[in-house]
Design a protein that fits this description.
62% of the residues lie in helices and 5% in strands. The chain has 568 residues and is mainly alpha-helical.
Length: 568
């Protein structure tokens, strides 16, 4: 009993201080502003519509079966709503739980793969928590952090445990199934290559190839059986169009000639410096990767068998988004940490060379601090102008101190370089998120328009939206009815005739005089505007007629502080 208790206490101490530090930063960041449109608001809209209309089997978005995603995340959100009530707090706490679990799983995976190099297990979670893009995307109520968690859990099942050398195949299959129920068949892509290439990194797989591939195939079949246990009844319940999209269009349509997010083959390669920042600016990491030579330990071989083929496959697939390879970020830091560990062991003079330290990132941080310090003068003199510069200037000198201190931290030499870099990366990313909240968030906050639409929906007034509606108002407004998508002037006119007391939302890139005179509300949204019109007023203007003068002035939200004003 004592050895087990000792091991448990050692594992708990291994989580200190990176897990509490990351959890505090993630909670502070994710609650610094509301759910982000359009990612988080769409996920919450689907969960809300399933909840309010009792669609537990088939996800719905704006009154239509939603085939883009499987339902596991929505079910997990519903579980919290059953316990705590409907709101956006639980979904955001869920994302923090997923991210923290991912870090713990990575630490355990690194410990199993590189038991003779404990530095790798200590470094890997620090490196993953510091990745700026992964941290910021983890603030979204989305499926990919949960998918990364199931990916790491599945791959952990393939590794040698202290009490068992053969993989836990049934648990491997269950984790695959949970990943499939999170985001569909793409889950298989994230785990298939470490399994297929298992004999290259796993000694047991090399000795027992028939059992490795036979039982692994059965595990994949178990995972897909879990997916089909939901998809088959959901397909029949959702109707023919939904069934066609669910089983064919959503996956095949993104592979070749993607209907959405199409990018060239080299797109991910160009994005690597952004995805791996701040470690993409650390010379020691690149030198360690460049000096990798055989023999490689199991951890490095595992990371190569995972990251490289998945990266190539995602590059060949037509549809691309920066967050698609999010589960592989853990594999990337495993590779970098393993490479640095080998460099320290084989080439200590190179590994501890001061010129390979964090000075490029330190110079970048100090330069950014100086820019923030002089920004108010540049704005005042008219040398820089624009929404970001104007709204940032009042806060920039405070944040210049933050980045100056982080730059000075990175100039320090000696032991703990990787942790200093991770700490600075995490705090720098948190500072950027805070600066965004103070400056640009009002351009993403849909609360003014949502309040107006919520009141209209409660009065059973129809609502239309010109173009494609992404569900951005449904959860925030707790809307009970679908919003009609209106394509073209004829659709606007027909909607106004059918619903003379209805409202129509438009999103022009620029405002004209009519948009400041006749609508009920105008507010900025990202680089465009949202305008809420009485349906008949907009129809008259589109038909070239003069509508009656409005009974009250248009409510306008042009300012960064969110206060409304009316035109003179």
């Amino acid at each position: 009993m004592q050895p087990n208790a000792y091991r448990r206490s050692e594992h708990l101490r291994a989580l200190w201080p990176w897990l509490p530090l990351w959890a505090a930063a993630a909670l502070l960041a994710i609650f610094s502003h509301g759910p982000m449109p359009l990612y988080s608001t769409r996920t919450l809209a689907v969960a809300w519509e399933m909840w309010t209309h009792g669609h537990w089997l088939v996800p719905y978005n704006n009154g239509v079966p939603y085939s883009e995603k499987a339902p596991l995340l929505f079910w997990m959100i519903h579980a919290g709503w059953f316990a705590f009530g409907v709101g956006d707090v639980w979904p955001r706490v869920l994302e923090v739980i997923f991210g923290g679990t991912q870090l713990v799983l990575l630490a355990v995976l690194a410990r199993r793969l590189s038991p003779e190099r404990p530095w790798v297990a200590r470094a890997a979670p620090w490196m993953l928590l510091a990745l700026s893009y992964a941290f910021l995307f983890g603030l979204q109520v989305m499926y990919d952090v949960l998918l990364a968690m199931w990916t790491l859990a599945a791959l952990l099942c393939l590794t040698r445990a202290p009490s068992r050398e053969e993989p836990r195949w049934w648990l491997f299959g269950i984790c695959i199934g949970l990943g499939l129920l999170t985001k569909g068949p793409v889950m298989a892509l994230h785990v298939v290559f470490p399994w297929l290439l298992g004999p290259l990194w796993n000694d047991w797989a090399n000795r027992h190839r028939a059992r490795w591939y036979g039982r692994g195939l059965l595990a994949f079949l178990l995972g897909f059986a879990m997916l089909l246990a939901w998809a088959l009844p959901a397909g029949f319940s959702g109707g023919e169009a939904y069934r066609q999209r669910l089983f064919f269009t959503q996956t095949a349509g993104r592979v070749v000639n993607a209907f959405d997010h199409a990018h060239p083959v080299w797109w991910y390669a160009l994005a690597l410096p952004l995805l791996l920042f701040p470690f993409s600016g650390w010379p020691r990491a690149w030198v360690a990767l460049a000096m990798l030579r055989r023999p490689l330990d199991a951890g490095v071989r595992f990371a190569l068998c995972w990251v490289v083929p998945v990266f190539v496959t995602f590059s060949l697939i037509s549809g691309k988004q920066l967050y698609y390879p999010l589960p592989e970020f853990a594999g990337a830091v495993l590779l970098v940490a393993g490479a640095i560990a080998l460099l320290r062991e084989r080439h200590p003079r190179v590994a501890y060379n001061g010129w390979l330290g964090t000075w490029p990132l330190a110079i970048g941080g100090i330069a950014f601090a100086l820019f923030l310090f002089v920004l108010p003068w540049l704005v005042q003199d008219g040398r820089l102008h624009g929404d970001w510069f104007d709204t940032t200037a009042p806060y920039s000198r405070f944040f210049s101190v933050v980045f100056l201190l982080l730059g000075a931290l990175l100039l320090l030499r000696g032991r703990g370089e990787m942790r200093r870099l991770a700490f600075a990366g995490l705090l720098g990313t948190l500072a950027i998120n805070t600066l965004f909240t103070l400056t640009l968030w009002p351009r993403y906050d849909l609360a003014p328009a949502t309040r107006l639409l919520r009141a209209a929906d409660a009065q059973h007034r129809a609502i239309g939206f010109t173009g494609t509606y992404e569900g951005q108002f449904h959860f925030g407004g707790r809307l009970q009815n679908p919003i009609a998508e209106l394509q073209g002037d004829a659709a606007v006119e027909a909607f106004a005739r059918a619903h003379p007391d209805g409202l129509i939302v438009t999103h022009p890139s620029k405002l004209d005089a009519d948009a400041l005179r006749y609508p009920l509300l105008v507010q900025p949204f990202r680089s465009t505007w949202l305008v809420v019109w009485p349906a008949t007023t907009l129809a008259d203007l589109r038909a070239g007629q003069r509508p009656p003068e409005p009974a009250q002035p248009t409510r306008i939200y042009p300012n960064a502080d969110g206060r409304n004003r009316t035109p003179p």
